[in-house]
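Dear all,

This email documents one entry for the complex benchmark we are building for the journal club exercise. For each entry we list the sequence lines for every component of the assembly. Then comes the predicted three-dimensional structure of the complex as a token string, followed by one or two observations. Please use this as the template for your own entries, and keep the labels exactly as they appear.
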Amino acid sequence: MAASIKDVAREAGVSIATVSRVLNNINVVNEETKKKVLEAIDKLQYRPNIVARSLKTQKTSTVGMIIPDISSQFYPEIVRGAEDVANIYDYNIMLCNTDLDLEKEVNYLRVLREKMVDGILYMSSSLQPKILEFIKELGIPMVLIENTDKEKNFPSVSIDNEGAAYDAVTYLIKNGNKRIAYIGKKDDDNNITSMRYVGYKRALEENGINLDASIVYSSGLKVEDGYKGMLRVIESGNLDAVFCGSDECAIGAINALREKGIKVPEDVDVMGFNDIYEASVFYPKLTTVSQPMYDMGSVGMRMLIKIINKQKIEEKNYVLPYQLVERESCKK
Amino acid sequence: MAASIKDVAREAGVSIATVSRVLNNINVVNEETKKKVLEAIDKLQYRPNIVARSLKTQKTSTVGMIIPDISSQFYPEIVRGAEDVANIYDYNIMLCNTDLDLEKEVNYLRVLREKMVDGILYMSSSLQPKILEFIKELGIPMVLIENTDKEKNFPSVSIDNEGAAYDAVTYLIKNGNKRIAYIGKKDDDNNITSMRYVGYKRALEENGINLDASIVYSSGLKVEDGYKGMLRVIESGNLDAVFCGSDECAIGAINALREKGIKVPEDVDVMGFNDIYEASVFYPKLTTVSQPMYDMGSVGMRMLIKIINKQKIEEKNYVLPYQLVERESCKK
DNA sequence: CTGAAAGCGCTAACAA
DNA sequence: TTGTTAGCGCTTTCAG
């Protein structure tokens, strides 16, 4: 067993209270004794046991991150952003993959409480009211990333998905496109990405373009969804452009178009969403709406830590700026 | 404060020991009393405090994962594989991003010990002897993923990088290619990816092809490394194929070739390594060596958990199978 | 400035 | 079958 505070106390010839004091930089411990303690610590290679400390202080300096799937393309960078600021404040991260599965989420939430995490960063494109209720009961500080609850009960950091989609589609229209397809989520009230459809609709409306349901494909957000959706949409005749609910979708869509001998962007413009890593590396490079993933993670974590430490937060619901990044999948 | 074991004991009219027994399914607690306890637990919504338990049992049911960077394309799936099996055995994961920075690694290792993790999954393409030494001193069960220490002191799970590279280059040669460039790491003894260069060399040799240093580019493994390397290598005249140390490299290389009006695979074959997600989605889809990322994570975690629980492991150094996946970036 | 002692919530002898 | 009790390693009053 590693050395404990007792061993250090014995070695230094002081009480454990004194050792604890130097450990925590409390009061003005006499320089002499402090030195003795430090020497003992050094000699014994002592390191405090944080579990014991946590039991006493009721703080673990660890926060849970609940995410749908780390192996998707969207979340790793958020996690990274969060970890980087956690690291600054000496917090650690416990990672929980839920696959958006309610049961898993509840389970993890329970475990996180049992393990006494100080706070939770909760990511879910699809917020179930039940979960929110459950979290509230848990009484653990939490901030939502990527999404916001309708009642704005919880602190959050996200972007304006509706506005971003609106801007993106407006861009497409300004580019001379009229017949613009939509491939992505819609009409799922719990799912934030459905807001992109709302933005799409509004852009069309405000520009006097009639929505044609035959070129709207309601789907998931993966590559194969984009692929399938595109194939389906093509059947409804010629197109000027496609607005996709995600970059993965856009990639799938472009692959489908390519198979059909349709060129991007020469024949049709394709717009993605999120600006995941592939977007800048795919051929053609995706024109897309950039979500500040890293920043969402880092400001989310910063906010959470403030809440944990009962500091005031400047804003409860951060809406981070998005950016339309023009690359190669749309004509300029 | 949430209910503690005391509250439950009081509510059920038994001792805390009894409560603890039903909690841990120990002995044959009388059915009657068990029922009473269970009711009390239910009524008070009691959940055990795992931190307290950990202090007593010296086990936390959490393991640390030390990885270079979760936001790179390689690690998320490993983490996912690890998490999935951790979940089965009721372990949680503490995530640590090190950027391959020695100081950060040491720091995290320390914290992990202070937080009493039961084990560590350590990933690093570049194993520093110092770190290994440090870990040994820590005395925490650890398994290496993606890499192996030369002395085979630590349990590990990886693939045969040299053999895989050999196979890949041999494939290129069988395909009729003679002038085959290499873009990737070489001569870094600590870095496992350097072994790909060794395999490259051997394949050339065994097929009677002279190694031409002017088409070997020693570099990092990122997209821009591949891009730069390709540009450089092209200057040395015509090429039949390029073997890249990573898929990112290959993507960068292909982008460079495309800019020069050189077609892949019509004019030159490009082979990647790893089979990250982009490989199957990029245009052209990458022919590459597939590392079983998810499996490396899951068998690594399974092995670690066995070690933690003092069970025998069948094999100390797992060498998982790789696979050459033929797609579009090489002629067939 | 320092020490004694209580206690965080739990497990595990040991007794009964 | 159940209860009592001694810690796990630390922080934090409260005295001195």
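Observations: Residues 4-6, 16-17, 20-21, 23-24, 26, 48-57 of chain B lie near DNA strand C (CB under 10 Å from a C1'). The mean pLDDT of chain B is 95.
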